[in-house]
Amino acid sequence: MIGGFTDPDTDLSVETVDVDPAVPKTTAWRRKRNAAMGITGTYKKRKEHYSCKKCGQPSTVATGHSQYKGYKFCPNEGQTKEEWLAAVKFQILVKQVSNFG
Ligand SMILES: [Zn+2]
């Protein structure tokens, strides 16, 4: 516990926080920290995207993610988008064939 513990939520180096008496100290500290990190808005804001279950990044085009007919593409899986798309189309084809069988 003591020494080398660098959890950002328990960073004790921030001690000179201007505490607003209307909000709990921790909340004021988080707001100040978030402002310093460029984070604005509240936590009540609805999630705009889902996190990738494979790499944890937001599943958005900005992070290189994509989807095709419900299949999710993750750029951090070692596949190119073309390879992935070919595999997805093959899977869909296999499903269609097995449905006829
Ligand atoms: Zn991913």
Summarize the structure.
This protein has helices at residues 25-36, 81-100; strands at 66-68, 71-73.
Q: If you had to describe this structure to a student in words, what would you say it looks like?
A:
The protein is mainly alpha-helical. It has two domains: 34 residues, no CATH class; 40 residues, no CATH class. It is 32% helix and 6% strand. It is built from two helices and two strands. The chain has a two-stranded antiparallel ribbon with strand order 1-2. It is elongated. The site of zinc ion (ZN) has 7 residues, from loops.
List keywords for this structure.
mainly alpha; 2 domains; binds zinc ion; 2 strands; 101 residues; 2 helices; two-stranded antiparallel ribbon; elongated
* Uncertain segments: none
Major β-sheet, in short? 2 strands, antiparallel
**In DSSP terms, counting alpha (H) and pi (I) runs of 4 or more, how many helices?**
2
Please state how the strands of the largest beta sheet are arranged side by side. Answer: 1-2
Overall number of strands: 2
Rg over C-alpha atoms, rounded to the nearest angstrom: 22 Å
N-to-C SSE string, H for helix and E for strand: HEEH
Q: Which class of secondary structure composition applies to the elements?
A: mainly alpha
Number of domains: 2
Termini separation comes to 60 Å
Q: What is the typical, i.e. mean, pLDDT?
A: 80
The percentage helix is 25-40%
